[in-house]
Amino acid sequence: MTNLIPGVGAGAMLNSQLLAEDRSTRIGAIYRIGYNEAIVLTHDRWKFDAGGIPQYSFLLATAQDINTPQVDDDEVLLLRVEGTSPLSMESDLHAVREESLRAALSSSQNPSPSVVLDVEMDPFTKNRVSFTGLRCRILGTFYEDDVEGQKVLEFGADVDNFYATSTYRVLKPVGEGLSTIASYLKPTDRPVDRVRIGVVRYSATRRRAKASKQATAAVEVNIRDFIGHKTALLGMTRMGKSNTAKIIIARTFAISERQRAVGKRPVGQLIFDPQGEYANPNYQDGTEIAAIGVKHVRIFKFGADGSEPHVKPLSINFFSENQIDAVQSLISDQLSTDDAGYVKDFAGASYADVPNDQSATAHAQRARLVLYGALMRAGFDVPSRFQARINIKRAFQQTISNALGRNPFTPRTGLAPNFVTVAASEVEAVVDKIVELREGGDVDAADFTKNVRWSSVEPIFTTKSQNRNVRGWKNLNPLRPFHSPLTVNDPAIEIYEELVQGRIVIVDLHVGASAITKALSESITARLLERQTTVFTAGQEEPPAIQVMLEEAHNLFSSDRYKDDRDIWVKLAKEASKLNLGMTYATQEVSGVAHQVKANTANWMVAHLNNTKEVRELAQFYDFGSFSDAIIASEDRGYVRLKTLSSPYIVPVQIDRYNLELVNEARAAAGDPPLGPTGDGSAA
């Protein structure tokens, strides 16, 4: 084997990594070759000895030593078997085979199939009909190069020369040789962290691969290909997309923790979990992403009561001042069905306090007072000990108190008399009386309500706008499930802060009406984009690295939606890269995702798809069209065709299963002890 390549010794990289006897086995020779395709001549015996040659197998073609020193053949062609090809004498050999069968039928007293078809051919004829032509696509060329004094294995995705066909031997890579090919990464200036993703799998039928011990060739990827880039997980439901996503998440977490350990910024990961399969264990995996550890994983979900520190409520407290932006966003969406002018005014105003601007803050507080009253009328649960802060003249306080027959105001300790609070039980009455006094011509009431913030909220409370009836607070009823009086901070803000700390954040959406979970997902994503954009435009530092995992991508990135630049998911798809946001999206509808999104996708993992429409769409990218029949036919879970940013060609892979071992690898990267079989933290 060391004489296959003139001028290349036994220790050379091509030989040691690809052509050594324990890394490849001879299966034939080149019969015909061009720049894009090669026909390989092989024999039934050679195929048997090599453990079979399934479709999509990688093969290597290398020039023989033809005793010509001038021949520069220090290279190896990488082939992929795509089908069969007739040989020049094949029709003649079929005729010989047919003639022998006809003779057997004529000469035998018993014309049964077992007698006629099983007739023994002479060895010469049998050998002649045992040759086969394999039609192979030439994927490119492996060769050695010097980079800064180091020998490296390079790959070019074409052929820069070829020789007479008699000078090539063809080998099937096995073991570490196959793993080297399947795990090959293009040299790059970017960081490289290799992690195992699975094993090479050429076909659904694996009997020969297992019998010949060729079913364990590991496939490694550069996990950094997934950080900051788009990744597509494509395949039908229950084909292993979520399992693949969990592996990527766990591996990314390990890299993040290593970065943290050397003083670099960690990577946050945001997972929108519509089925609850990332937050909760399932019978297939026996574990979940959350098992990586409560210090590292935060779960936001409806109904969380605070009993578990890492599980936090997803709901918004509509009465919390520091959540007013999220409240305004949800209410604006809900009011959008009403065509009254106040809706636009409400969406365009600001109801948050303005630092160092006492006047703007005073008007914001007054508008919030009206909004709180509207929420109470809509039946929202009021937090215990809730009080609304306002800035109101002492004389006007007295006027309202006289009109109510009681004093609803409580002075705020240490502040001027104008700064008071209104108890929850008095809010509606105070707002009603202010409106009534203004309508009665009270000057102080008119001055108190003259700002646009008040006028944009009042119709929600009174259900009247410009002398006509509107739905107002009645429109807020569907928002009650969003509300929790226990929530302290806006979940979107808290989620972003957790992401910046490098944690995995799972937004568990499997409980809750779809309209509610949709609105909350969009609110969280909008806040993420807003914060990343703020850092990006400041220009002082790079935005923190954050990964976003999305299911049902065909509902988020359809071609029709992609035309709307205001759509939050479209903004995420278009702006993710510059904002240092990686995005993994999963779908069974390849055609349902806008072409622009797919065209900017760096990593592809394609499992079983059940119709030609989706496969035709997929065939527009790289050379997935070559795998069309297998993608439709093979329904094995976790069997994918993999193309990553660093890999120059598609590799068929059986993805590993996410399990306790992988969880413990992630925990080890964070310096945590392994979990035992029961997940109790004891030694595994």
Secondary structure topology:
Layout: H1 13-19, E1 24-33, E2 37-43, H2 44-49, E3 58-63, E4 75-84, H3 90-107, H4 113-116, H5 123-128, E5 131-147, E6 150-156, E7 168-173, H6 175-182, E8 194-200, H7 207-211, E9 218-222, E10 230-234, H8 241-261, E11 268-273, E12 297-301, E13 311-313, H9 324-335, H10 341-348, H11 358-377, E14 387-391, H12 394-404, E15 409-411, E16 419-423, H13 427-439, H14 443-448, H15 452-462, E17 464-465, E18 468-469, H16 491-500, E19 504-508, H17 514-538, E20 546-550, H18 559-562, H19 568-575, E21 581-587, H20 595-599, E22 603-606, H21 612-618, H22 628-633, E23 639-643, E24 651-655, H23 660-669
Helix pairs in contact: 8-23, 9-10, 10-15, 11-15, 16-17, 17-19
Task: Give the tags.
684 residues; alpha/beta; twelve-stranded mixed β-sheet; six-stranded antiparallel beta barrel; 23 helices; elongated
